[in-house]
Amino acid sequence: MTLLSYQVFMAVVEQESFQKAAQILQLTPSAISHAVASMEAELGSALFVRSRQGVYLTNYGKELFPYIKNVLNSDEYLQQAIAQFQGVQKGVVRIGIFNSACVEWMPSLLKDFEKEYPNVRLHIYQGTYDDIYHWLKDGVVDLGFLSSCSVGDLAYEPIYQDRIVCVVPKGFQPENPGYVTVDELKKQRFVTQREGCDADVNHFMKKYGLSAGGRSYIVDDMSAIALVMGGYGVCLVPELVIRNISFPIDVYPLDVEEKRTIVLASVRSDILAPAVQRMYDYIIKRFKDGIDRMEF
């Protein structure tokens, strides 16, 4: 199989359509169909399921996906290395990031990095901790912002600590002026996110024996806070989540000091493509210089 075959495979996966893949690669739909048919004949099994809803990977295709992705990543790294040797700073960097970090940090990071490296293309993938972990493992992204609770066996560098606080409906009166205790939390009903979305808060609740009470399966921060605003319960969040929101809520510190550690993760920090290495170094430097001094 050729590199073009792998590019066709990935384009079909991403677009879920032969027609759209042809447009992306500037080929004819028949050329895409022929390339896929040739791959399937060589491999001896179907790679895609064709349906009215779109084109999707078979189980066999899913098994091959990370390997084909790694081949394409290796080619990208090679092209970046050649460009670097020729004195040209270019390439593609794909970053996985969760919601609150994306809202707070990405606008400034992207704008300033692109000023310095205008020929480096940046692709941003927003998702949950679980999404980002699997994207890194499968080669979908090169770098990922994660929590230390969810980084698993990936290589990582700690970059930011974020205090856990309690969000309550407007007018809520804590038992102690100015803060909420763990014992008081045990009497409350919680709005909680799904476990893969908020590993740090779930870890906190397990550590202190807190029960979720109400049954909520929220996947984003703002929905959880909106439920709190409506009086459905209280929620625990890392402080970054509520840094620049204007919801009619109150926020209290806790009587215990618990923080999430945000990390910059990669599969291996010692082997990064040149453009990825530049972004990695750039992010680390920005946080060491003080992220709170960044202009938003």
Description:
The protein has 296 residues and is of the alpha+beta class. Among the domains are: 1-88, Arc Repressor Mutant, subunit A (Orthogonal Bundle); 159-260, Periplasmic binding protein-like II (D-Maltodextrin-Binding Protein, domain 2). The chain has helices at residues 3-15, 18-25, 29-43, 59-85, 99-116, 129-138, 182-185, 199-207, 221-229, 274-290, and strands at 48-51, 54-57, 91-97, 120-126, 143-147, 155-169, 235-238, 249-252, 259-266. Strands 3, 4, 5, 6, 7, 8 and 9 form a seven-stranded mixed β-sheet that branches. Strands 1-2 form a two-stranded antiparallel sheet. β3 (91-97), α5 (99-116) and β4 form a beta-alpha-beta unit. α1 packs across α4. The radius of gyration is 23 Å and the shape is elongated. The model is unreliable at 292-296 (pLDDT under 50).
Shape: elongated
Low-confidence stretches: 292-296
Topology-level CATH name of the domain at 159-260: D-Maltodextrin-Binding Protein, domain 2
Distance between the termini: 47 Å
Helix fraction, binned, reads 40-55%
Please indicate the percent range of residues in DSSP E strands (runs of 2 or more): 15-25%
Oligomer: single chain
| CATH level-four homologous superfamily name of the domain at 159-260 | Periplasmic binding protein-like II
If you compute it from the alpha carbons, what radius of gyration comes out, rounded to the nearest whole angstrom? 23 Å
| DSSP, total strands | 9
Largest sheet: 7 strands, mixed
Structural class: alpha+beta
User: What's the average pLDDT?
Assistant: 85
Pattern of helices and strands: HHHEEHEHEHEEHHHEEEH
Under the CATH scheme, which class of the domain at 159-260? Answer: Alpha Beta
